[in-house]
Amino acid sequence: MISVFNFFRGNVRVELTSDFPERFINVCAQNSIALWDIQRTGPHTLVVSMLGGGYQKVLAFTARGVGQVKIIRHMGLPPFLLRFRGRFALIASLLTMSAALFTLSLFVWEIDVSGNENIPKEVILQELNALGIGIGTYRGGINSKEIQNQMILKIPELEWLAVNVNGSRADVGVRERDPKPEIIPRNIPCNIVAQKAGLITSINTLEGSPAVTVGEAVESGQLLVSGLIDSNIVGMRRVHAMADVTARTWYEYTSVIPSTAVGKRYTGREKNRFAIILAGHRINLYWGGPEKYPALGMEKTVERKTLKLSDNFTLPFMWVTETLTEYEPTEFRVSRASADAFMRYALDLRLQAESDGAEILSVNYNTTEQGGVYICEMTAECLESIALTVIMP
Question: Phi, psi at residue 156, to the nearest 5°?
Fold first, then answer.
């Protein structure tokens, strides 16, 4: 802290020559002249640092024969600023730049969204912009609590949202609401029907009358457990049927891929062009369109770099580099092994999505080539619960 204070006040490094250097130090101490970083360079010489004001007092002592002093160098902020005497344009530019940076720091120039899985980031940014939170928004006018309430009303899938502003960066954290399963109240009479076709392997009835037996094949929508109960004492009555019904199910899918495809053969020629995005507005630094080689194809890759002074201080400038790479469309044959691996992967994803967590007992694939296409047929056997509760008509 003392060194910072001395830097702003300005200090000098001087060389003292005296027959009695210790006497010089004592005289400075008696007159409250601060000395530091004292180095003895010879029998009669010292090199010390002192404030600029203390140096003026030392000159008075040397006039009375205490010794001689010579300045080695000036240090600190005042000597640095003196170098710019008469350079008014440079000083004005520095002041203008400082004022501009301070003004820019009062606004939001970068918005980052995290925590979203099912809700697209673009949807959240669009709704925030409708509420006045976007690029160039004055950060002092952001009310995080009010924004949270408004966003939950606009996007019901959100359970929680918070906007934290750090410098010119706004971090938007969200948590999505878990979908609640539809539950039919117990006082409503219901039947249980087959959600999928299959072969019954077990049935455990808690309430209601079973309409099928183990080993019986059922179709989708077929009645499994009836909510209509007939007894000799009470007679016919309707209840909320409850049962766990497990069945073997089968899935059959087909995937098709052409045996030939069109790829890209790069010619090695490319072109770079640049642009600046200033506060959301793009300024192109080039002329003309991308069609440099109209007879061939052109692939464009875009790289964006946001200019930052620190992690939390983002400038409203984004440097855009577009690389246009020339290629020639080339037809090639797809190998059977590559096609088979890709089709099996796609069919596996579909099976996992539509079987909804069922136990997969076996999977068989059959890949053939017919008429210029590869055909992969999948047959899967699963074990799963097929009970579906529906309200009794």
Answer: -60, -20
> What CA–CA distance (Å, rounded) separates 300 from 298?
7
> pLDDT digits over 27-82, tens only?
777 777 778 888 888 887 888 888 767 777 777 776 666 667 777 777 766 666 66
Helices (H) and strands (E) in the chain, counts: 8, 22
The neighbour count for residue 3, using CB atoms within 10 Å, is 8
Are the beta carbons of 69 and 16 closer than 8 angstroms? yes
Helix, strand, coil percentages, rounded to 5, for the chain:
25, 50, 25
Contact 117, 176 (CB under 8 A): yes
Q: What angle do CA 4, 8, 12 make, to 5 degrees?
A: 95
**Site of tokens 């009375």:** 64
Compute the half-sphere exposure of residue 306: CA atoms within 13 Å on the CB side of its CA: 17
Instruction: Determine the residue type at 193.
Output: V
Closest CA to 296 of 259, 271, 316, 273: 271
pLDDT at 280 over 80: no
Structural domains of the chain in order of their starting residue, each with its CATH number? 2-81 (3.30.70.260), 110-176 (3.10.20.310), 190-250 (no CATH), 260-333 (no CATH)
- Decide if pLDDT at 168 tops 60: yes
Locate all alpha helices (DSSP H) within the chain, ordered by sequence.
2-9, 21-30, 52-63, 77-82, 88-104, 121-130, 144-154, 336-355
pTM beyond cutoff 0.85: no
Choose the weakest-confidence range: 5-14, 23-32, 107-116.
Answer: 5-14
